[in-house]
Amino acid sequence: MTSRHDGVRVLTFGTFDVFHSGHLRLLERAAALGDELVVGISSDELNEAKKGRAPVYALADRMAIVRALRCVAGVFVERSLEAKREYLVEQGADVLVMGDDWTGRFDHLSDVCEVRYLPRTPSVSTTAIIEQIRGET
Ligand code: CTP
């Protein structure tokens, strides 16, 4: 995706591993806040650093799934959690959307774009699904 665009561009970030209904609801609500939604997908290395485990689905597959959604205009790779500001500028973001597990953590970026936190969908997460399949819960 390039930064040249008309209308309101919304950006969000995440791993989106073992895609589930909580992911879909977050993306649909984020898309509804603007004209096009662009999603930064965590690299396999970033996910490992962030969550202490390799993703189940490799980056190319996670990107293909998210890119195929009707509510998503484009995807790019997020390689560093610290580079949010650069990504927002590069992508020409008007709005940054994050789940409310991050509330307050990105307020310092409100000089670049509007920052919104959306409520997470209760009772579903990639970690819980993996544990359930492994028979750990
Ligand atoms: N998300 C959500 N509701 C959920 C789970 C995730 O709204 N029940 C949102 C997160 O807040 C984030 C995005 O979906 O904005 C991507 O989250 P991600 O970390 O990839 O998914 P999780 O299911 O939270 O993964 P994990 O259990 O590995 O932390």
The CATH class designation is: Alpha Beta
Number of discrete domains: 1
Total beta strand runs: 5
Structural classification: alpha/beta
- Give the names of the bound compounds: cytidine-5'-triphosphate
* Whole-angstrom Rg: 15 Å
What is the ordering of alpha helices and beta strands?
EHEHHEHEEH
Unreliably modeled segments: none
**CATH homologous superfamily assignment:** HUPs
Q: What proportion strand?
A: 15-25%
- Calculate the terminal CA-CA distance, rounded to whole Å: 40 Å
Shape: globular
Could you give a short account of the major beta sheet?
5 strands, parallel
Could you explain how this protein is built, in words?
It is a single chain. The protein is an alpha/beta fold and 137 residues long. It has a single domain (9-134), classed as HUPs (Rossmann fold). It is built from five helices and five strands. The chain has helices spanning 21-31, 44-51, 59-67, 84-91, 126-133, and strands spanning 9-14, 36-42, 74-78, 95-99, 114-118. Helix 1 (21-31) links the parallel strand 1 (9-14) and strand 2 (36-42). The radius of gyration is 15 Å and the shape is globular. The structure holds cytidine-5'-triphosphate. Cytidine-5'-triphosphate (CTP) binds next to helix 1, strand 4 and helix 5.
List keywords for this structure.
single chain; 137 residues; alpha/beta; five-stranded parallel beta sheet; 5 strands; binds cytidine-5'-triphosphate
